[in-house]
Amino acid sequence: MKNNYIILIIGILTLGIGLAYFLIKNNNGSISIHVTESEQVYKFAATYNETKSQKIKQYIDDCLKPESIFKNSDKVDALIILDDRTRFNIKATPGRLHIKLDKSENSEASIVRIRKICQGIKEIIGEK
Fold first, then answer.
1. Which whole-number Å values give the CA distances from 37 to 22, 31, 100, in the listed order?
2. With the C-alpha atoms ordered 82, 84, 88, 94, is the resulting torsion angle positive or negative?
3. pLDDT, tens only, 50-93
4. For the chain, where are the alpha helices, taking DSSP H only?
5. What are phi and psi of 118, to 5 degrees?
6. DSSP element (H, E) containing 75
7. What is the pLDDT of residue 17?
């Protein structure tokens, strides 16, 4: 009889851990957008449903043409330097995006460009 309870408890724990992992991994419906700006840095961080990842990747690449950041990859972690000397760090995985721009290394036009791109990303994330 004790063995049955032990097996039941192990099964419930395993199911609970599996469900928690699934919910964290798939990030269904969970949206988080944080924009932080100071005199030195502009930071954009977003967590969103993974189903939006392809659209966001395409939007970013369209905005930065002729550059292509993602190049058939779902993940990127790089310092990007564009032809117009815009410099920013980007880290992206399905469902997550972080952009960091050092204002002292960029022109006002570059800062405005990255802000506009991030605003467009926010709109895509918010789409139903």
1. 33, 20, 10
2. negative
3. 999 999 999 999 999 888 898 888 899 999 999 999 999 999 99
4. 2-26, 53-63, 108-126
5. -65, -35
6. none
7. 78
Q: Distance between CA 117 and CA 83 in Å, rounded? A: 17
Query: What residue has token string 């790089």?
Result: 78
- Torsion region of 85: left, alpha or beta (phi above 0 gives left; psi -120 to 50 gives alpha): left
The reported pLDDT for the residue numbered 73 is: 86
Q: What is the pTM of this model?
A: 0.76
Cα 74 to chain center, whole Å?
11
Residues 6+ positions from 56 with CB-CB distance below 8 Å:
48, 92, 97, 121, 124, 125
HEC profile for 19-39? HHHHHHHHCCCCCEEEEEECC
Q: According to the model, what pLDDT value does residue 111 have?
A: 96
Torsions phi, psi for 73 (to 5 deg): -125, 145
Structure-token pair, residue 38? 């100071």
